Amino acid sequence: MTTGAGGNVITGGTHGTVVQAGHIEHLVVRQAPPPADEVTVAPPFGRRGAPLRGRDALLALLLGASGTHVLYGLGGVGKTSLALEVAGSFAVQGAPVWWVAAQDGGRLAGGMRAVARRLGLGEEELASGQTADLLWERLARLPGRWLLVLDNADDLGLLDGPGSLAAGTGWVRTAPGSGGLVLVTTRDGDLGAWGAGPVLHPLGVLPGDQGGRVLVDRATTGAGPSADAELLAVRLGGLPLALDSAGRYLASVIERPAFLRAPGEPATYAAYLAALGAGDVTVDGDGTLARIWAMSLRLLRDRGHGHAETLLRLLAGFADAPVPLRVFAAGRVDIPPGELWSCLQALDRLGLAALGTDGEPVVSLHPLVRDAYRGERERLSARLVGELGDPEDRDPLWPLLVPHLLDDLGRDVPERAWKAAVSAVHVLDVLGLVREAAAAGRAVRDRAVAALTEHHPLARMARMGHARGLLVEGRVEEALPLLEALTRECVRAEGADDALTLMVRNEYANALQMAQDYERAAVENAEVLALRVGLFGEAHAMTLATRHNLAVTLSMLGRYEEALAELDAVHTAELGLYGPDDPRVLVTRENRACIRRDLGDPEAARPELEAVLAARVRVLDADHPQTLAARFNLATCLDPAAAVPELTAVLDARTRVLGPGHPVTAATRATLEHMARTLPR
Questions:
Q1: By CB neighbour count within 10 A (0-12 exposed, 13-18 middle, 19+ buried), where does 680 fall?
Q2: Which residue in 247, 255, 437, 632 has the fewest CB atoms around it within 10 Å?
Q3: Are 243 and 234 a contacting pair, CB within 8 Å?
Q4: pTM for the predicted model, two decimal places
Q5: How far apart are CA 504 and CA 460, in angstroms?
Q6: Helices (H), 15-130
Q7: CA–CA dist 438, 445 (Å, integer)
Q8: Is the C-alpha dihedral spanning 255, 256, 259, 264 positive or negative?
Q9: Beta strands of 102-242 (E only): which ranges?
């Protein structure tokens, strides 16, 4: 983090007249002046609840500190909770503690005057117009330890008071030579606005293990193992307020008898995670988080960042991955470049998004902010499927997501392969939204080719998306030559180890496997895996996808033990990345079970396949192709008498969903016929 303006950063009523209505027409009654607004400067210790998690180092630092310290970060990240822990420790030691609510000017000024009275200032001094100066003179002379907390000071303009916050003449100052601590909680970590005196501490979200402990604290017992709590904590973005909300929800469900629970109401961490992914539950049942986002956006608008929400909506349309800032190059969005950058910085300071560098500048949305804009993804999907004729005239996301996203891939620039990968995840995400609509897939390809020339990297990617659509339809014989030619072209134009080349080769390997050419598919997968490990590392999502594909191919060659070892490793890594009900995790779990079945242990495979089927029915639906795949595989673990009626039902569903001529439907029919022949006559 950079510093500015000398700032320090540590990582890691009135009265009047009223007209009285009544029979006496013009009677004017002068009312007595109302009493001054009452304020309290007592710490709200009643809000302390479960143990504070994940802040031990910062808490220890603050307990030994003096001067002025600022806790800043996203609303709901736990700034007030940490300040309360500091206040509790001071109070136990007998030190004076004053707590001033600073969310509006009236409470701030009233609170500071109340502190001044506690320090002995009389009404005449308070009426002199010099309250801030006199207060800080008293604080500087106060012996021993003391604590002054200003909570929720989000509008830094209020802290100027009679002077200037940055100049050290406002309501918040530093008392030189004093043993006292001034602690301010705020969303705004603008170093220039705070000036050189305060020490700023960015308060981030909690890591998975600490977030999991927060969930366990709130949900108490019966919600599942701590590992499941950690996975849910990661999905909730480590935001303490969201963790608290989810934990209390689960506690409220668990304490009720099972017969008083609604059907499907989640009572475990794993069930809540699945329901959250399916949109069936929300961590924001009372609208608290929505109010937090609204307050943050209002603060940004007040600071002159009028495009903040537009930018959030644009970011929400991308895949759930870092977005390269170059996609927002001048002229691509209707936001002036200077305002765009200052807006991104403001979103970063408030924790709504995070700026970073990983080969090039990127920005990532907080996962719960992404959830709040879930409708952007649904709107984009509907737009792409239904209006692909000329969507750039109507949708501001399209010119960012497709026509310009990879426009620099043809240049000989450093980190080219990394840029290809980062960009490709977003383009593939768009193609994924339409891949089950073959006409849409062809429209993407044709428009890209027309706009860019057939051999532009983006046009090649669009052609790959079209081939993927053919594979989804089961038209392997059409997709295979397209991918074979595209692979040769990418190796020649991009290089054998280029990220785009490897994506095309991955699809080519999939096509070979679907064509039952397992030997060649294994060679392709092994080579792609080695190159992706070198490019991205062992734990990258693309590496894991290829490792999974290789394992499946090995199983098709009868190398079951090797395949099972590979899938076990992939499953462990994917659980940490995605959570238990993610489609990728379920596919890995399903394939592991199928290998155990093929090794002659259908009894070990059945409970795994039953769990996968239940998750897919819950997360997808009963007729989704992946759900039908799990149902088919489970049927093959049954004895023939039970398998035949189940396979008959799967065949009927696949005929309806995929069509009678689809290869998967044909394979189901063949399996059913074989199983039926084994029945006793």
A1: exposed
A2: 255
A3: no
A4: 0.53
A5: 9
A6: 56-63, 79-92, 105-118, 123-126
A7: 11
A8: negative
A9: 147-151, 181-186, 199-202
